């Protein structure tokens, strides 16, 4: 028989555990509400703030430049081509200024700094968005030569580092922001070539920059987009380059892959990119805009559902899981079938 004392203890324990669970839920809800409110605070005076964006001919950079221009920011949009600059000027207000910049050319970067210094004066530079990038060549590692790696690293990593270093004095003046465009490929190496390496490098560079520059009031955010339809994911460009790489391979390497490998690879790539690439690039530029306008910008922004719910979680799992997923997306070389 259950005594009255035992029953009382049992009831008290049940009430206590119920209370503990309710308190934990309440605290979690309050923390989420606090985070949400804090995340929505904005800085003011957009019209007094200068933002410099690289790679504005197309894609994220182009949309971000027009988006910030509409918000009243003083946008300085760096383009690689005259045509890109002319088209952007036509699509934006007279406030937006375009400038020619090749991020692999130190002299071009120095000219950009001079131009920006004159524009911003004593105010300094509020925002630097390192966005310029290229993807090709991408493909199996043994299809590459050393220069295939360096031509991507020069734009996507060394370009980001040099542009940032040159602009730091102007950013310090304004206690400004650096927004670096990495990728989910900076967390998971899905393909050979320089692209993934460059984005892992951008992640590491941005982490050290954030820690070192916080003492000077500079905030650093990293954008990690999933897959979006833009120039860097253009299948025509990627496939044409893969055919070039294949045509340069020695016959024994081609034999180890098999006659049909290139076509199978291209087909598998077309299939997965067709499913993965989102046409809504505003998901990325909204993250960039938040990093420039929020009073408390986030350190990392996963942009796109695939990044948030698939690639970033996958990057925390053991490597054999990501190996399985990536292997399932690509065909097997002929020699592998005999191993
Ligand atoms: N699209 C995606 O799925 C995705 C995902 C993750 C990260 N990203 C990153 O997002 C950034 C923007 O790319 P996007 O997707 O918007 O593709 P995009 O339309 O090709 O934009 C890249 C821009 O960078 C410019 N550029 C290339 N080389 C340059 C150089 N040496 N100096 C200055 N500018 C140069 C390109 O100019 P041209 O057009 O004249 O070549 C282009 O305007 C890149 O860093 C890319 O790696 C893209």
Would you spell out the secondary-structure blueprint of this structure?
Layout: H1 4-40, E1 50-53, H2 59-71, E2 74-79, H3 82-91, E3 97-100, H4 106-120, E4 127-130, E5 138-139, H5 146-174, E6 177-181, E7 192-193, H6 194-213, E8 219-225, H7 235-247, H8 251-257, H9 261-276, H10 282-293, E9 300-303, H11 305-316, H12 319-329
Parallel strand pairs: 1-2, 1-4, 2-3, 4-6, 6-8, 8-9
Antiparallel strand pairs: 5-7
Helix pairs in contact: 2-10, 4-5, 5-6, 7-9
Residues 54-55, 57-61, 80-81, 84, 101-104, 131-134, 155, 181, 183, 225, 227-228, 230-233 line the site of NADP nicotinamide-adenine-dinucleotide phosphate.
Transmembrane segments: 15-37
Pfam family, one: adh_short
GO molecular function: oxidoreductase activity
Question: In a few lines, what is going on in this structure?
Answer:
Keywords: Membrane, Oxidoreductase, Transmembrane, Transmembrane helix. The chain has helices spanning 4-40, 59-71, 82-91, 106-120, 146-174, 194-213, 235-247, 251-257, 261-276, 282-293, 305-316, 319-329, and strands at 50-53, 74-79, 97-100, 127-130, 138-139, 177-181, 192-193, 219-225, 300-303.
Report on the architecture of this protein.
By secondary structure, the chain is an alpha/beta fold. The chain has a single domain (42-332), classed as NAD(P)-binding Rossmann-like Domain (Rossmann fold). Helix content is 58%, strand content 11%. The chain has a seven-stranded parallel beta sheet, with helices on both faces. Strands 5-7 form a two-stranded antiparallel ribbon. α3 (82-91) links the parallel β2 (74-79) and β3. The model has no long low-confidence stretch (mean pLDDT 96). The chain binds NADP nicotinamide-adenine-dinucleotide phosphate (NAP). Belongs to the short-chain dehydrogenases/reductases (SDR) family. InterPro entries: NAD(P)-bd_dom_sf (IPR036291), SDR_fam (IPR002347). The chain crosses the membrane at residues 15-37.
